[in-house]
Amino acid sequence: MSPKKAKKKIEGGSNVFSMFEQTQIQEFKEAFTIMDQNRDGFIDKADLRDTFAALGRLNVKNEELEDMVKEAPGPINFTVFLTMFGEKLKGTDPEETILNAFKIFDPEGKGRIKADYIKEMLMTQADRFSQEEINQMFAAFPPDVSGNLDYKNLCYVITHGEEKD
């Protein structure tokens, strides 16, 4: 298939493809291929179990796998997979909005907040975080040696899915 025909197929085949740049679609395709352990073009419970096992998590409950598969409207082929990610990402606020929320706690505009302070705020204000949610956040975005959280990088990762180089 020529590149022009391939491009038209992507643009015309499904609206979900217009939500992402070509490089993002390729990254999603790579992730899908990794998860499609049996290479049948669909991700099912067995594929999810094998993916978790490859990541070192061996005791995944059947109910957990069933809940994941049930999030899809039907069999999870690449288009469904991409649509699911599109719907999840659509709910993410723009980077500027998230940055502005953090800037409230950073009046000097340094791009860093004391981890203890943000932990206290997240656990005591508005939609309160649980200790487990705090642990997950700091596991994914550990504070630096001075105990500061780099919220600019955190916001970038939340909205772009990868760290800045």
> Structural class given helices, strands, pairing?
mainly alpha
Query: Can you tell me the CATH architecture of the largest domain?
Result: Orthogonal Bundle
- Could you tell me the number of beta strands? 2
Unreliable stretches covering 5 or more consecutive residues: 1-14
The CATH topology name of the largest domain reads Recoverin, domain 1
Portion in helices: 55-70%
Task: Name the CATH superfamily classification of the largest domain.
Answer: EF-hand
Cα-atom Rg, whole angstroms?
19 Å
- Strand/helix succession: HHHHHHEHHEH
CATH class of the largest domain: Mainly Alpha
Structurally, the number of domains stands at 2
Side-by-side strand order of the widest sheet? 1-2
Fraction of residues in β-strands: under 5%
The averaged pLDDT comes out at: 83
**Main sheet specs:** 2 strands, antiparallel
| Structure annotation, total helices | 9
Give the CA-based shape.
globular
**Terminal Cα span:** 35 Å
Describe this structure in words.
With 165 residues, the protein is mainly alpha-helical. The protein has two domains: 70 residues, Recoverin, domain 1 (Orthogonal Bundle), CATH 1.10.238.10; 66 residues, EF-hand (Recoverin, domain 1, Orthogonal Bundle). The protein is built from nine helices and two strands, in the order ααααααβααβα. The protein has a two-stranded antiparallel ribbon. Helix 6 runs antiparallel to helix 9. The N terminus is likely disordered.
